[in-house]
Amino acid sequence: MKIKYLQGSASYGAFPRISMNRGRISRLLRTGRFSALVALVGLGLLFTASGAKAAGCAIPYKTGAAPSIPFVSPHGDDQQEGENFFGPASIMGLWHLNYTAETESGAPIFPPVPFPFLESLKTWHSDGTEFENAFLPPTGGNICFGVWKDLGDGNVKLHHIGLMFDSAGQISNIFTVDEKDTVAPNDKTYSGTFDFKLWSPSFAAVGVGSPIAEVTGKTAGTRITVD
Questions:
Q1: Which run of H or E residues covers position 43?
Q2: 174, exposed or middle or buried, with CB in 10 Å at 0-12, 13-18, 19+?
């Protein structure tokens, strides 16, 4: 048996090409050597692929730095899936969400736009409430809640509120986020716009006058399923 090596992709490197006559193939099959060779080649490809890239999961990041948690892509196939698609798309469920800032105003506390504003896990409930767990330390206001309504045809509107805390555990700021999102026909992704506003730590001041700072931009969500 002769083994020639072909250059593969960057992820897999070189792999063997096996050339042999029919008689020698039969003898290898009878002795089990051929099955062992195939198993070794398969294992080599598997370990090469698994070691090509490592990704972090839920690593806190500093303000203005891009989050490094790309365990699912926010970009999917927005095409309808034909026979596998039934009824209107719904935003209810669990999502992996990315926010990208495009404009900012008010106090200069954010980096120049555009920049990755936030990454989070977000749940939309059937009773019109919403829950979000951002990839931030708790003092950054990583847990927040919202209410939403269905506008029809896969479109929704969200009003969201959360708290930030200082080093002493006192409320330092209140923030609101208003979104308009549209679920793709395949029910696997959604996209839209967000408007983040930062307020003083008094609930009476939320929505009154101008916010301390404001950031607007785009949302991109990918559904997380049980299978």
A1: helix 33-50
A2: buried
Q: How many DSSP H helices and E strands does the chain contain?
A: 2, 10
Residue 72 lies in a domain: no
Q: Are 149 and 218 within one domain?
A: yes
Distance CA 134, CA 136 (A): 5
Q: What is the pLDDT of residues 24-61, one digit of tens each?
A: 434 443 444 434 333 333 333 333 333 332 222 222 33
Range of the domain at 8: 2-50
Closest CA to 123 of 160, 86, 151: 160
113 and 194, same structural domain?
yes
Distance between CA atoms of 86 and 184, rounded to whole angstroms?
Answer: 13
**Tokens describing residue 24:** 């020698």
Task: Rounding to the nearest 10 degrees, give the CA dihedral for residues 142, 227, 222, 157.
Answer: -80
DSSP line for 154-170: TEEEEEEEEEEE-TTS-
Query: What type of residue sits at position 138?
Result: P
Q: The pTM is what?
A: 0.63
Q: Would you say residue 215 has pLDDT above 80?
A: yes
Does 63 reside within a domain?
no
Tell me: the pLDDT tens digits for 59-113? 233 444 444 444 343 334 433 333 333 456 899 999 999 999 999 999 999 999 9
Same domain? 95 vs 144: yes
What is the reported pLDDT for 169?
Answer: 86
